[in-house]
Design a protein that fits this description.
Layout: E1 8-10, H1 27-42, H2 47-52, E2 55-56, E3 59-66, E4 76-85, E5 89-98, E6 104-113, E7 115-116, H3 125-128, H4 130-141
Antiparallel strand pairs: 1-4, 2-7, 3-6, 4-5, 5-6
């Protein structure tokens, strides 16, 4: 399997717009999550597989910078990268680009940690699930 992730393509829905026909700012955080779930699926680490292994990945922080307006009918590609991976923490970065022009529309990031689903305690994937650790390490280190 290649670690190269082609990006998550999204066409905004009408209900996601505000009164000016622009995508409402609150939707970008949802789009980040959709793209994050898609990249995990691409890596063979669905949320079901992760949770079935007794691991949860809570969101610790989210950041978003709006560069250009996205409107209903536009199509965008969300590129997801691992900004940092330590075995206990996982930080994603996001770029939302116009699918036609490749213009940068939005950037963002989210910070996460790995916790035991049962105890709620922080855990190290390197110790508790070396297979998952290897997948994240390979994706983090890939160009």
């Amino acid at each position: 399997m290649t670690n190269r992730y082609p990006g998550y393509v999204r066409t905004p829905h009408y209900y996601e717009t505000d009164q000016m026909g622009i995508i409402h700012h609150s939707n970008y955080i949802r789009w980040f999550e959709e793209a994050r779930v898609a990249v995990l699926d691409h890596l063979g680490l669905s949320y079901h597989a992760i949770e079935n292994a007794g691991i949860i990945i809570p969101v610790l922080a989210v950041d978003c910078q709006y560069k250009n307006m996205i409107r209903y009918g536009d199509q965008v590609k969300i590129l997801v990268h691992i900004g940092q991976y330590t075995g206990t923490r996982l930080d994603f970065t996001y770029e939302i680009r116009d699918s036609t022009t490749n213009q940068l529309m939005t950037t963002g990031s989210s910070k996460h940690c790995f916790m035991s689903k049962e105890s709620g305690r922080l855990l190290s994937l390197k110790k508790t699930n070396p297979g998952f650790h290897e997948i994240f390490t390979d994706f983090f280190e890939s160009p």
